[in-house]
């Protein structure tokens, strides 16, 4: 939601930054002067013994002279609690007694109902906790003790017990004047099909509360005490509070622990998460189903760039890992992936910790495999490639898998790594010089190394970031053009984290039409640095529509041109990466056709259809970038034994 003008200024005015920071640090009393609001402490963002972290309480800003972390109360909450911008604002608003801006009546009504359901769930948590102390729960207590869970640990995780009674919880809540409709809506009971009273959803089970990222009880997971029960583990049904595919067990505490540098571990079930956390691995979560969903994967990537999937060392665990790979491949982005720590055969993380302690688990996490390695193992283990046909079948399968990766750069790197592994599998040997891998009786392929060189990568990044910066700057200065270009902006994958932050801020304030208010809203969400960096760039300052503000028509033309060229660039890179993946197996005429068509499309996009070509040559930093791109393409063609005369280039 958009915040009204002045709300954030008022929030910062009411907030004492030293009180907010003081919950996380120990002030250096010798250096600090509380009367002047001049406070010093060891930095909470990096390990140090000296007090180099400075808080200016009057100005409301902090700065670390060691790691250069800086910001205000909102950014401090975001970094230390690992929450989003709006969550940080809500936390501070609640602490200072400021009401959040009113929402529309229907939204407020929905929020009020959710609050009532959460209250019902909290009453159920307390009921199950009390039941665990009764005589009927003796077997449950013995089971928990056998799993190594002490009473303090059971308190921390609020573990309870649902007695084996049809209306135990129902009668308890009704006696507390809870409306029957709310009990049913919370998923705690089910209506009788025979016309009788509703009956409890959970009976004869050890109960684990499931809380959302903000710590509110939204569901339960129950482990059956009866070994013959059809469902060993049972989750709450989906409700207004609980969406199984969008929830992670232990999400909130794990997010905070990951924000302090702990590795994010994804385990299979409640007991694994509890065992990991109790052993010191606080950033542990579990999906609430048989496999990770795409929504849960996005939640994981918001917490950490490379979550470690820690799965049971059995066939089912391996199948779950393979499902995670298939889910993640199309969603991979630069820097975001998965790693896999496979437990010993027949063991889960809880077993590993009980047998070998935290040290044994640390060794497995340190040895976690990258996703490409597990993908290769899946495609090759247990198979024999003793004929050209079988090798060709492997190549086809690998090409199909790699083609699912949307990001062209990542797809290219996967092609290189798969090619290396393929050479290794089919009996390659190291070259005599410098230990380089070379296939027997064949020259070393130069295509991948040429494309992956740091010089080419730097040129590509510069060209893309140039156009991204112009797009962002134009939309910030001409927010009235957002409706026309919003969909293109939303679909664009920006190359840098700073550009991503500006993209998110623009989309969040898409309804804003005043340039000054748009800039203020963005600065409130990202801080001043990203905007300062953006508008200080030389190739942004020379864009005519930015150099002389007010010409919305020129800005619209410049935006259309920048979007078109950026999309054309990335389509071009996608085709080339696809060609590399093809070359990992066997080059053919189809590859030549792809390159010819792609080169023609690229040249057409680079020529453009605008009337004022000089203006857009300036926008592209001159024809130099075009020449460099063509030179790179000629290098690629030379690797394929082709030249521009037969590739369709001009």
UniProtKB/TrEMBL annotation:
GO terms for biological process? DNA replication, synthesis of primer
Entry GO terms, CC: cytoplasm; DNA-directed RNA polymerase complex; primosome complex
All copies of the Toprim domain together span 262-344
One family from Pfam that matches here is DNAG_N
> Quaternary structure per UniProt?
Monomer. Interacts with DnaB.
GO terms, molecular function: DNA binding; DNA-directed RNA polymerase activity; zinc ion binding
Per its UniProt entry, which superkingdom is the organism in? Bacteria
Give residue ranges of zinc fingers (CHC2-type): 43-67
How is the cofactor bound, in the record's words? Answer: Binds 1 zinc ion per monomer.
Say which enzyme class the record assigns: transferase
The cofactors required by this protein are: Zn(2+)
Q: Which UniProt keywords apply?
A: DNA replication, DNA-binding, DNA-directed RNA polymerase, Magnesium, Metal-binding, Nucleotidyltransferase, Primosome, Transcription, Transferase, Zinc, Zinc-finger
Write out the similarity annotation. Belongs to the DnaG primase family.
The UniProt comment on domains reads:
Contains an N-terminal zinc-binding domain, a central core domain that contains the primase activity, and a C-terminal DnaB-binding domain.
**Any idea of its EC number?**
2.7.7.101
Q: What does this protein do?
A: RNA polymerase that catalyzes the synthesis of short RNA molecules used as primers for DNA polymerase during DNA replication.
> Which SMART domains does the UniProt entry name for this protein?
TOPRIM, ZnF_CHCC
InterPro entries on file: DNA_primase_core_N_sf, DNA_primase_DnaG, DNA_primase_Znf_CHC2, DnaG_bac, DNAG_N, DnaG_primase, TOPRIM_DnaG_bac, TOPRIM_dom
Per its record, the protein catalyses: ssDNA + n NTP = ssDNA/pppN(pN)n-1 hybrid + (n-1) diphosphate
Q: What is this protein called?
A: DNA primase
């Amino acid at each position: 939601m958009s915040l009204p003008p002045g709300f954030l200024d008022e929030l910062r005015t009411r907030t004492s930054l030293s009180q907010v920071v003081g919950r996380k640090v120990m002030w250096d009393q010798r250096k600090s002067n509380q009367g002047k609001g001049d406070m010093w402490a060891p930095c909470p963002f990096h390990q140090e013994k000296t007090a180099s972290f400075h808080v200016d309480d009057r100005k409301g800003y902090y700065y670390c002279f060691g790691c250069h972390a800086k910001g205000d109360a909102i950014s401090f909450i975001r970094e230390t609690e690992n929450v989003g911008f709006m969550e940080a604002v809500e936390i501070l608003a609640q602490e200072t007694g400021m009401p959040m801006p009113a929402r529309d009546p229907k939204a407020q009504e929905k929020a009020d109902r959710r609050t009532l359901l959460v209250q019902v769930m909290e009453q159920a948590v307390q009921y199950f906790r009390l039941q665990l102390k009764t005589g009927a729960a003796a077997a449950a207590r013995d089971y928990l003790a056998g799993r190594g869970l002490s009473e303090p640990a059971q308190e921390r995780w609020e573990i309870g017990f649902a007695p084996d009674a049809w209306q135990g919880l129902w009668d308890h809540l009704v006696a507390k004047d809870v409306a029957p409709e709310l009990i049913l809506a919370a998923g705690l009971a089910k209506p009788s099909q025979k016309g009788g009273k509703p009956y409890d959803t959970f009976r004869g089970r050890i109960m684990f509360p499931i809380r959302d990222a903000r710590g509110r009880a939204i569901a339960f997971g129950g482990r059956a005490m009866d070994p013959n029960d059809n469902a060993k583990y049972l989750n709450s049904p989906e409700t207004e509070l609980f969406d199984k595919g969008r929830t992670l067990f232990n999400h909130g505490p794990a997010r905070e622990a990951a924000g302090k540098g702990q590795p994010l571990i994804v385990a299979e079930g409640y007991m694994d998460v509890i065992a990991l956390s109790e052993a010191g691995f606080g950033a542990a979560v579990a999906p609430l189903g048989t496999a990770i969903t795409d929504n849960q994967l996005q939640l994981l990537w918001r917490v950490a760039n490379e979550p470690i999937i820690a799965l049971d060392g059995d066939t089912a665990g391996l199948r779950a890992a393979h499902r995670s790979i298939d889910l993640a491949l199309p969603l991979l982005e630069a820097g975001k992936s998965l790693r896999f720590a496979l437990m010993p055969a027949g063991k889960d993380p809880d077993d590993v910790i009980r047998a070998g302690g935290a040290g044994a688990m640390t060794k497995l996490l340190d040895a976690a495999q990258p996703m490409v390695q597990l993908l290769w193992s899946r495609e090759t283990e247990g198979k024999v490639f003793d004929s050209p046909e079988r090798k060709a079948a492997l190549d086809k399968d690998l090409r199909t898998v790699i083609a699912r990766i949307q990001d062209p750069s990542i797809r290219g790197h996967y092609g290189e790594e798969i090619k290396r592994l393929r050479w290794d599998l089919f009996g390659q040997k190291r070259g005599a010089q410098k230990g380089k891998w070379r296939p027997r009786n064949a020259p070393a392929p130069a295509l991948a190394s040429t494309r992956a060189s740091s010089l080419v990568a730097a040129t590509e990044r510069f060209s893309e970031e140039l156009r991204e910066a112009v797009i962002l700057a134009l939309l910030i200065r001409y927010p009235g053009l957002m409706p026309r270009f919003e969909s293109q902006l939303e679909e664009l994958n920006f190359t840098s984290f700073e550009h991503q932050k500006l993209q998110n801020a623009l989309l969040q304030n898409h309804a804003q039409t005043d340039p000054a208010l748009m800039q203020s809203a963005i600065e409130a969400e990202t801080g001043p640095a990203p905007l300062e960096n953006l508008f200080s760039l030389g190739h942004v300052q020379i864009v005519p529509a930015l150099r002389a503000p007010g010409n919305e028509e020129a800005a619209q033309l410049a935006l259309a041109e920048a979007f078109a060229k950026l999309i054309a660039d990335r389509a071009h890179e996608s085709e080339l990466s696809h060609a590399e993946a093809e070359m990992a197996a066997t080059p053919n005429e189809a590859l030549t056709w792809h390159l010819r068509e792609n080169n023609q499309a690229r040249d057409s996009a680079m020529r453009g259809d605008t009337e004022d070509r000089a203006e857009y040559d300036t926008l592209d930093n001159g024809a130099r970038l075009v020449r460099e791109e063509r030179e790179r393409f000629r290098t690629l063609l030379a690797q394929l034994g082709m030249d521009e005369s037969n590739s369709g280039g001009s």
